[in-house]
Design goal:
Length: about 220
């Protein structure tokens, strides 16, 4: 593995878009190589893998969690995780708050919305979050800092379809910003875009792309 693709991606991404290098399933040596190439933000989708890699790799890495998070695994990642992209239920949000409080931390989180066709993908509906926020649901959750939204598009070659889903997530972000987070500067992130669709995601307003295969595999055309 070389970091040729990684360097190409870094060059092609506007400076206001953050790259989360998704290192799930990659060997530690590959992650170290990308780190040596300058990357400092990495994402994992399994809590125990995240812990292993946190322990094995340099401590100035910003670790993001991007996968479905089970309640009984929250405690492993809370002491060090920088951003949880995948808050997909109110129950999870409350539990993350509880563990963050026990650790004397305020943890940054994104609300994951269901924008794809596949029912296997997780996430809120906009109406659920609006109801929660209208009821003042965040008032008692002082140890989570909601900094934006996340979504995964449908896995399809129909890029117009994918673009429509990203537009939908951008609209959700704009609606929440306007109605609930107008004065909150921290609420600014739209995490969307992966290997197959990150260019479209950036065109549609992504502030954070989560790229795995294209960062670590030289044989993927980008
Ligand atoms: C695996 C994964 C990615 C990266 O996908 P690639 O196709 O490897 O770029 C991004 N986001 C989530 C939530 C993932 O699980």
């Amino acid at each position: 593995m070389s970091i040729k693709n990684y360097q190409k991606i870094v060059k092609s991404i506007p400076s206001n878009v953050k790259l989360v290098a998704v290192s799930k399933t990659q060997p530690i040596e590959y992650i170290q190589k990308v780190y040596d190439g300058g990357q400092r933000i990495f994402g994992e989708n399994r809590p125990l893998d995240l812990v292993d890699r946190y322990e094995a790799l340099p401590k100035d890495i910003e670790w993001h969690f991007i996968g479905h998070l089970q309640t009984n695994k929250i405690k492993y990642i809370i002491p060090f995780v920088k951003l949880i992209h995948s808050i997909d239920s109110i129950k999870l949000l409350k539990n993350v708050n509880k563990h963050a409080k026990n650790n004397n931390r305020v943890v940054d989180v994104l609300l994951q919305f269901h924008i794809a066709d596949e029912t296997s993908k997780q996430g809120f509906k906009l109406s659920e979050i609006k109801d929660f926020l209208n009821e003042g649901g965040l008032n008692n959750l002082q140890n989570v800092n909601v900094v934006g939204v996340m979504g995964m598009a449908t896995n399809t070659d129909d890029f117009n379809h994918v673009r429509g889903e990203f537009k939908n997530l951008k609209n959700i972000f704009d609606t929440l910003k306007k109605e609930f987070f107008n004065t909150k500067e921290d609420f600014k992130e739209i995490s969307m875009g992966m290997t197959n669709d990150y260019k479209i995601a950036i065109e549609e307003g992504s502030t954070m792309v989560r790229i795995g295969r294209a960062v670590f595999n030289d044989d993927i055309e980008i």
